[in-house]
Structures are given as C-alpha cells and as structure tokens.
Design a protein that fits this description.
By secondary structure, the chain is α/β, with parallel strands linked by helices. The chain has helices at residues 44-56, 75-83, 100-110, 124-131, 136-149, 167-179, 233-236, 238-247, 261-264, and strands spanning 11-15, 61-65, 90-95, 114-118, 155-160, 182-187, 212-215, 220-222, 231-232. The longest helix is centred in the middle third of the chain and has 14 residues, at 136-149.
C-alpha cells in the first residue's frame, strides 16, 4: 500500500486498551482519565479481523500498544491470534514492563517476537515521581524476564525533556550499553500543541518516511499521530476505513485534540 506521497505503508500499531497501571506525568493526570466503556473497546475478534485485512493489503509489521497492553484481560490469547496471521514478519509490543515477569514466557511461546520497554530513569525515587504508581524494581525484573525468554532485541524507550544528555537519560543509556540493549530517546511531545521531533535511535518523527497507521482501542484508524483524521472500522467497515486512511494520510503532522498518548499508544 502506498499513500498519495508514495510512502509505503506497512506498519500497524494497535492500541488494545486505554487503561494503565502507571500514571506517567507526560501521559495522563495523577487522578487518571475517564476510561472507555467495555462496549466501546474492540473485541479480540474485531482486532484480528481488521489486522488480517490489513496484512492482506501489505501490512507486515504489527505492534501492540495501550495504555498498558498487559492489563488487557486475555492479552496472551490475542497475541496468539495475531501471531497466527500469515504475513506478519514482525510482531512486537510496547509495555511499561511491570507485568512481564508474569507474562513474558507465555508471550514468547505464543509468538510475540520482541518488546519495547519504557524506562525513563534508573533512580527509584525519580522513577516513582515520573510514573506516580510504578516501582523501578518491577520494571527491571520485567526486563530480566523478557531477556531470559528471548523477546529480543529489547529496546528501551526513554522520554527526555530537552536532550539525551540529561542525567536520567545518560543513566538509562549506560544501563542499556551494559546489558546490550538498544535505547530510543523520545522527546516529550504535545499533541495539542503539535510539538514533536525525531526519535533519537529510532524511526519515529520522520514524517517524510512515515509508514504507520494506528488503530485505537475503540476502533478508529488514524493515519497520523499528530492529526485528528480518523476512520471508524465499525462504522465504515475495515476495508473502507483502511482505504480512506491511506488516501488521506497527511504529508506531515500538525496537531491533535481528538486523542491522547494513553489511548493511541504514541
């Protein structure tokens, strides 16, 4: 699939829930946010049906996101259902890692290839300040669990305010180098203000080569993170939503007030 700017679209990010066990300061307020009703959230069958359609049109890279995907009940079953779709070359997940000690082995066994794990500080106090509810020890145990079962390569996502020379960023980089992990520095962004930049060590933020579509937990297909253009796969059907998303994928991002990072997965 190619959009109107001749970009090959082969990457689908699927938000399976807007719920999260953390309350990261750059993602949501301390009191949390109103959650989607269960009826609004796509069922596993709906997710798999649309993904199978997208793969038949040329998608070969799929990432499971949230919220925190591991809080979605039955997530291992969904991963298996997706892994069984012929044509997916890379099936990955972005997670905060806290539940990986529980799920890593099962996720690997059903076909998940690898994980990106959010890690913004190596200092337990700072980590708790940033996540409000998280414990650094839980995430480090999750990283160990992912490495042990072979969910590789492990990539660490570190949010930075100004640059990758910040104290927390340097500590995460040192940890990654010591363990042989990759690290991606993601500048703190604002959807409403349209502030975004290139991810250091990753592919995100390059509008000219963007190959992504994003499916929200309630079934809207977004061709761009920094745009309110979206198409409901329930209202339009998967085929038409996919067609419109490709046709109307903007040349570059602007702003968005229609969704937030916690419900579209970044």
């Amino acid at each position: 699939m190619y959009d109107s700017f001749k970009r090959k679209i082969n990457y689908l990010r699927i938000s399976v829930t807007d719920r999260c066990n953390f309350r990261c300061t750059y993602c949501m307020p301390a009191e949390g946010v109103p959650m989607m009703s269960h009826n609004d959230v796509l069922s596993f069958d709906e997710i798999v049906e649309f993904t199978r359609l997208a793969v038949s049109k040329g998608i070969d890279k799929v990432r499971i996101t949230g919220g925190e995907p591991l809080v979605r009940k039955g997530i291992v079953s969904l991963v298996k259902m997706l892994a069984d779709i012929d044509g997916i070359k890379d099936l990955s997940m972005t997670t905060n890692g806290a539940f990986l000690p529980k799920f890593a082995d099962d996720l690997k066994n059903v076909g998940l290839n690898r994980v990106n794990i959010s890690l913004d500080s190596m200092d337990p106090k700072r980590f708790h300040e940033i996540t409000r509810l998280g414990k650094l020890e839980d995430v480090l145990n999750g990283i160990d669990a992912a490495e042990k079962v072979g969910l590789l390569p492990i990539k660490l996502n570190c949010v930075i305010k100004e640059n990758s020379q910040e104290e927390d960023a340097l500590a995460v980089k040192a940890f990654a180098e010591e363990r042989g992990f990759q690290v991606r520095f993601i500048h703190q962004m604002s959807l409403g203000e349209g502030s975004f930049s290139v991810v250091e060590g990753g592919e995100g933020g390059h509008c000219g080569t963007c190959n992504r579509l994003r499916l929200s937990a309630d079934g809207k297909l977004f061709p761009c993170l920094f745009s309110d253009i979206g198409y409901s796969i329930r209202e339009l059907g998967g085929e038409e939503a996919l067609k419109k998303a490709i046709e109307n994928k903007p040349k570059s991002g602007t702003t968005s007030i229609g969704h937030e990072f916690y419900n579209i997965g970044g």
